[in-house]
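User: quick one
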Amino acid sequence: MSDLMERRRELLGPNVSTFYEEPVHIVRGDGVWLWDKDGRRYLDCYNNVAHVGHCNPRVVDALCAQARTLNTHTRYLHEGILDYVERLTATFDDPLSTAIMTCTGSEANDIALRMAEAMTGKRGIIATDATYHGNTTLVSHLSRSNVPAVGFGLGAYLRHVEAPDSYRIDDPDGNRFAALVARAVEDLQASGIGVAALIVCPIFLNEGFPAQAEGWLRPAAEVVHKAGGLLICDEVQAGFGRCGSHFWGHQKQGVVPDIVTMGKPMGNGHPVAGVVTTPDIMARFRTSSRYFNTFGGNPVSCAAAMAVLDELQEKDLQAKALAIGAMAHERLSALADTYEVIGDVRQTGMVFGAEFVTDRETKQPASDYADRVVNAMRNRGILLSKLGRHKNTLKIRPPMPFGAEHLDLLIETLDDVMSQTPLVAR
Ligand SMILES: Cc1ncc(COP(=O)(O)O)c(C=O)c1O
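Assistant: Done. Structure below.
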């Protein structure tokens, strides 16, 4: 292991992150399982990229068959991208009917912001202060935790609003959040920049997936639209049925965004991402800037993405996310009866977790405890992580084939680990 770490440092440079105190060296995957180089098996409770399961045979077969036949770019005619975009956009509400395919979620968000500028003639962007939307020069500025030391001063166009937090902030209907957005809008207008867009993950997953009633985002969407700006929903994590009740997170929120971006699960690990928008916005973008992406929308990527949709539909994985997610909420709530350190249990479809606090009254984050639990779980063969502003909330976001038997193993191991993990490190 240390050899590999040393080679990484030499070849990839410093500060390249790995998960866990003892990083995992994975060599094989199948469904919800991963194996390390010594043949040890891990239950994957973290990776949403392998959406329909690691090395899903349908996706691998589709990839191989297309790779054996042809792979080019979109300057040649090919049905693959058209068949896929038709099928993809059928999952959206009107008038979201056109798409650009990219290779990463970052590129998709970059295009979305450029579309918003093209459409509004303004540059002001509003995001939450605990989010992550990607790594291009423009998009990397959206992450407050990550505002780059270099980046051509694009931060001037950004306004961050306090991220929602259903555990600590009382905002049952989204009006408080909308008021924060309104203040950011006023500031951008007063500074002469104006508002191009509000960009959010519709279930605020990186922020800690707060509990929100359906329609919670509507007041903020109204504020932005009234100011002439666009709503961009980043579905990179929330989309493709993960929410359980709806195929897209924004549908759960009761809004129709102007632009939707997606990625991670779209190609089950093959780099496929995209932007879906209205014909008007697409036309404005396409005529105001030349856009070509060598790999975006190639026939192999489209075949993989189509196989993901087939698999989701055939195995009814969205319904499964709804059912297993509800069970997970129950099981975590039962653990909260035993462990005082669990301050809050949260769940949206197949995303669930527990927020750890040192004291339920003060809600003081138990971030160090969360860290020790995550590492102990890894040592027991269960891969998960933590997130949120205080990094004290378990992030459990498994591949969609995750079933009741896997949930049993996860909860039994978590119970055992928590029973042996003191609140204060010895
Ligand atoms: C919500 C969200 N948007 C965008 C991205 C960026 O996607 P990519 O890493 O494919 O560029 C991420 C990546 O973690 C993400 O979580």
